[in-house]
Each structure stands twice: as structure tokens, then as C-alpha cells.
Amino acid sequence: MSFWEKKSILSLPLKIILTQEGSTFFIRQNKKLLRFKLADNVEEYGISIDEFSPASIQRLLMIDYISKIEISKPEFVSSRQEIMDLSKLIVYSVLYRQYDNYIFHQVLASDVIKKWNRLNPANIIDEKTHIKENFLRSVLVKNEQFIYETRREILAPLYNFINKNTSLLPEEKNIQLLLSEKFLMNLRPFVWFIITKFKDAPNFDSILKTIRSSLTEYMDKAKIAEYISLMLMELVINAENSNIRKEAKNMYKGSVDMNTIMFDPNIRKKVVSELERKHELVFLSWKLGGGSTSIGTQGKLQITLYNKEEQSEAVKESINDKKNADLKKKSLIDFYREIPEGEDDTGLGMYYLSYLSEACEKVNVRFESNANQFRDSDLTVINLSFVF
Predict the structure, then answer these.
(1) I need a labelling partner for 271 at 20 to 30 A (CA). Which of 208, 247, 324, 348 fits?
(2) Phi and psi at residue 177, in whole multiples of 5°?
């Protein structure tokens, strides 16, 4: 069980938008799909859940059944840890899939497979090679011990490095060890089939070296998952506090000090209840790039935060009509700088953004961010885009 699965069930109201494969699967299971109107005013089909196990969501992500996940709530502070856990789970899942895809293509391009294909033109191994599932499973079961030992061999240098790293706490070391195992456990069965079939071939070690060196690279990429989750919570809490301040001014007309409203749990609860009644929510979504069949979109993740009023129908429509939308586009840095003094602690957000940008640059992850603000309303749309 991975480290974010310590809590076996997470309580979050998720709208899960399915891919075509995901829709087909659930329909065959007699699961009725729901039609959602999402924050961007686009209608999609999917399922709705209020509680879930992290492992079940990750399985759906890994087999490319989910295209988008959306959450809408009047407040997120009470669900802080759950949101951060979900965010990290999604990022790790994207990285697992990207690593698997990369290793698959590296194995096919190896000298071992090239030589086989030259000598066996009638039985070449490439992306279109199909092996019956029952046969594949039987081969892997037969070679279970060898596969286990091969994983240990691949991981041994990394294990040694992690255990000797004095800058890591014991729990952090354990997280790193578990994460490295998860990358290998999520390699597709076909890769392990190739490894078992060609274990005695000349240059076989080159395949293991590729898997090991690439694993180190993806472990470095995985470090940004924590920064993303912290950045996300900072953005969400800023939006949440902005809504609470606006509603509190309407409710109390200046009769109660704003600091009292923000920090008194009973008063804050009343304001949040009113926001929920009015359906003035903060919307948070994760949009995943395409799977193995979507060329050029693998490894993409877009996180979007919408802070808007439900009754502003004209504003909702304008999100999808850029020609008519009266918006001001700016960098996320400028967005933070323009938050009125005293309303939010922008320092923390700037700090997370700085570290996230730096961390992405170091591990060759493309990161872009911007904030769109609609002048005729309080709508703010913040985008964080990643290509792993």
C-alpha cells in the first residue's frame, strides 16, 4: 500500500468524466452515466462519488478511463489533506503512465529487439504486437521469481542511495522506497514478458540499465507532486477566503470585524453555509492528457481553478467564447501581486510558485501558469499546465 493510501477512504465530492473506454466499461457494468455541466460550461458524461479509495481512482487513471476530475465546494480548508492526497495521486499516476510509455518504446528500440526483428521478419516485435492475455499471464506467473529478482536488481543502487541520504527523515526514505517500487510495479506486463524472453540475449543488461537510469529521472520528476499540492491549496484557500469576505460583508454590513469573521469558527461556518445555499462555490479540476492512442498528449496535466458566482450565466457562457469575453490575462505572479493588501497572505503563494517553477525547470517538466480575470464580474480562472 502506497503512502497516500494510509487513509483507506477519502471523502470528497468528485465528478469523474470518463474517456470513451471508461464510458464503455461502466455501461457494460450497467452503471448509468450522469450528464454534468462543468465549471467551464461544457457538458460531459461521467460518474459522481462522495467517497472513494485512492487505489480505485488510481486504477481507473492508469488504464485511461478518466479524462477529468472536478470538485466544487464552498470551502476546502476542512478537506485540505484529502485534496492534497488526491492531487499527488493524480500527478503520480500521470508519471507512472508516462514512465511506462517511455520504457515500452525504449525496449522496442533496444539492440536486443532490433536484432530479433532482423532475424525473425515474420514475427517482429513492435507496438502492434498482440499476445493473448492468458498466455501472457501464464508466462509471467512461471517467471514470477525471476521478475522479482530483476526488480530487486534494478532497484538496488537506488535503494542504497536513498538509505544513505542523511538529508531524508526515516519516513521520507520510506516514501521514496515505496515510490520507486510503484514505478516498476506499474510497467505494463508486456515489458516484463520481453525481459523474461530475452534474459539470456547479448546486450540484455542494456535494457535493465535503461529502466534503472530512467527510473532515477522520473523519481526526480515525482518530487514536484508535493509542490503542486501545496500550490493548489494556496490558490484554493485564497479563492475560498475571497468568497467568504464578500459574503460576510453582505451578511454583517460591517457590524463584525473581518478578522473575527475569518477566524471565529462559528461565524465562518454560518458564512460558508450561506455560500453553499447560494451555490457560490470554488471549482477545481484536473484534466489529463490522452492515453496511448492520443499522440502528442501523453504526460499532459492541466489543473484549473474557477471562482465564480452560479447566477452569473453570462459570465459562464463567456468562458467558452473568447472573442466576446471581456477578460484580463496575466501571469500568476501578477495575480498574487494584485491581491489587495491585508486580504490575503500572498507571500506563501509566491513562495510555492517560485519553488514549483524552479523544481519543474530542474527536472525538465514544462510548466505554465496564468490567471484570467473577467472585469464585469468576480470570475477568476487560474490555469496550471504541466507536460511531464
Answers:
(1) 348
(2) -65, -45
Kindly state the DSSP code that residue 42 receives in the 8-state scheme: -
Q: Please say whether the beta carbons of 336 and 346 come within 8 A.
A: yes
The closest alpha carbon to 302, from 284, 316, 322, 283, belongs to: 284
Centre a 10 Å sphere on the Cβ of residue 199 and count the other Cβ atoms it contains. Answer: 14
Using CA of residue 53, residue 55, residue 56, residue 61, what is the dihedral sign? positive
Given a contact cutoff of 8 angstroms between Cβ atoms, the answer to whether 383 and 304 are in contact is yes
Look up residue 224 and give its three cell numbers.
Answer: 514536484
Residues lower than pLDDT 70 in the chain: 1-7, 290-297, 309-329, 339-347, 374-378
Measured CA to CA in angstroms, residue 88 lies from 4, 67, 97, 242, 286 at distances of 8, 16, 14, 25, 11
Tell me the per-residue pLDDT of 52-81, one tens digit each, with 9 for 90 and over: 999 999 999 999 999 999 999 999 999 999
**C-alpha to C-alpha distance for 59 and 62, rounded to whole angstroms:** 5
Residues facing 114 on adjacent strands: none
The 3-state DSSP composition of the chain as helix, strand, coil percent (nearest 5) reads: 55, 15, 25
